[in-house]
Records
---
Amino acid sequence: MINNKLSKLFTGLFAAMMLLTFNSAAWAQAATCGITGSATAGTAFYDPFNPSGLSATTINLNLTRLNPTGGGKTDVVNFYLKAQNAAANGTSIVPTVVALEGSSAGLGLNIFHNFATSPPIVAPTSVTPSAANRFLKLSFTGNNTASDTATVTFQVTLPANLNLNAANSLAFDAIFACSTSGGGQPTQQTGQISNAVVFPVVVLSALQASYVGPVLDFGEVGDKTTVQVQGASGTYTKSGDIRVASSGPYLINLSSTNKLSVNFPRWELGHAGAYARI
């Protein structure tokens, strides 16, 4: 019998309020141009074992451009998103609508890029996004307050079987290029902000466990001699495989009908699964 204290699927949230934040301090350190913003979305759930994954969730992102001192302004920002490791590979973040005093390009493209893949080219800001070069371009106009803001609607999709540990946040890095005009010589600048985009997400704590092999019937050992129990190898063995897939740490306990129990070490693994020979 497999008795696992974490076999219960705990209730969790994938963002009652799903916030997406561009760290303005980090942008200011990297460049004198760029954007800041935040967004919200409705409640959603992500079960790492759900074969359907998480269907597209709408996020409305409100952006404000950063303008350098001296009368200059941010006129173009190109950016894409990337994870800090391969755990979020396969995520999709697609801008579908942009409202601003100006123009945009890159709608309908997935601007999330898997870890360790070749990045798109975003600089200089005259570069145009395409299916082979996926990023979002925001081209602002004017140098007045009404021209400083933009609203972007994203469709965010998480595929099935993301190798995520149970957690309450999922952070992406923003890689960008921006340009300025007015207030002196035009500039072209680039930068990267770690944890620039953070989804406060509670991944459901979930576990699957199964055993494959012959029935673990050791028989009645009370009527066996020591030689019979030990056998030629000095042990009496039964073999099989336990498969465990978990989004958090777990403890396996095997027990017999007469309460003999064996504890396996606590393992911390992604839900991709592991096999233990017993």
---
Amino acid sequence: MAITFTAAEKSALAKAITKAACGIAECWDVLSQIGDRICRDWEPEGTSVADIADRNASDLDNPAAIECLDADSVAEYFSDEENWKKPL
């Protein structure tokens, strides 16, 4: 049997998923700009933008974890040279 949602729940879920999708798309846009600058493509092995976002989102239940979301810490997720491939 399918779960039934209220209209308010449906609306809240749709808004939340839209924000998440926009955030992932925005991250890819930034990675593409970086890739253009360094002449490489971000092609991670075994992780994705969604995985990185999910890993951080699950830590937001702990207010102390918010500190790890500063610009330098977030950039570390994307800085591994093995994840930046030269285009063919």
---
Amino acid sequence: MEKSIIIAVVLGILVLISVVQALQLNALKEKINEGKLTFSKTSSSSSGGSNGQSSGLPSNIQDLPSMVGGC
């Protein structure tokens, strides 16, 4: 195969993927606007960090400001 044919095929695949993603994004946007989309919060077994509040983040991310010497 020639180099230009391979590039054209790859470009066509990328365009097809972007079209599919645009359609999925549009469908998701419509669901959000109609209020049909529901979110579920998963419970965390961690105690929530040093301040006692649970934000749903892993403890290593919650303690990040103190790890880097936060203000």
